[in-house]
Design goal:
This protein has helices at 41-44, 57-60; strands at residues 48-55, 67-77, 83-99, 102-119, 126-143, 146-163, 169-172, 175-181. By secondary structure, the protein is mainly beta. The radius of gyration is 20 Å and the shape is elongated.
Length: 184
């Protein structure tokens, strides 16, 4: 489905499927070499970002790059067992193409804010996040000197749960979020 995001299904209607590429995660071990119980150490050391991809439908319709991509750095606070996670960034997209019949230009400016929590036992930590997106999109079509503009503005929120694993992702119709962890 194309932006505008107000036409995407409500968060409750979107089936979120988290996938992950397993990577080795160090786990604190007790005297017997077994994982210790307690707060999620991975959450305390969390450093990374979310890659957010949003389908720009009017661009895709004429063969332009269909995805606007943004990266949201994550910051963590708290002392466990649940850590607060937040971040924000802007996604900007602008593509214009000239044709023998005229031109086609699509712009998108979107603010994305992330809030939520990281929790879970060591080795099984999870991010429970809410993404708030607000933005404007404009499509301008010029044909034989005539100009048509198709503006849109709106907001949308998405709930997302991801395992604390590099490459974990979740998505729905018109959007995809991928977790990238920084090596510590």
């Amino acid at each position: 489905m194309a932006v505008p995001l107000t036409n995407t299904p409500a968060a409750a209607d979107v089936e979120i499927v988290a996938t992950a590429t397993p990577t080795a995660t160090p786990v604190a071990a007790g005297a017997e070499g077994r994982p210790t119980e307690g707060p999620a150490p991975g959450c305390a050391r969390l450093q990374g970002e979310l890659e957010v991809q949003v389908l720009v439908g009017p661009a895709e319709a004429v063969g332009m790059e269909p995805m606007a991509v943004g990266r949201i750095p994550l910051s963590v606070s708290g002392s466990g067992p649940t850590y607060s996670v937040e971040g924000q960034a802007t996604i900007d997209y602008e593509v214009s193409e000239g044709h023998d019949w005229g031109s086609y230009t699509v712009t998108l400016a979107m603010e994305v804010a992330v809030s939520g929590a990281c929790s879970g036992p060591a080795g099984s930590e999870q991010l429970d996040l809410q993404l708030m997106m607000e933005g404007e999109q404009n499509t301008v079509v010029v044909v034989e000197g005539m100009t048509w503009e198709y503006p849109w503005a709106g907001s949308h929120s998405l709930d997302l749960s991801l395992p604390l694993v590099e490459g974990a992702s979740g998505g729905g119709e018109g959007w995809l979020v991928v977790l990238h962890l920084a090596e510590s």
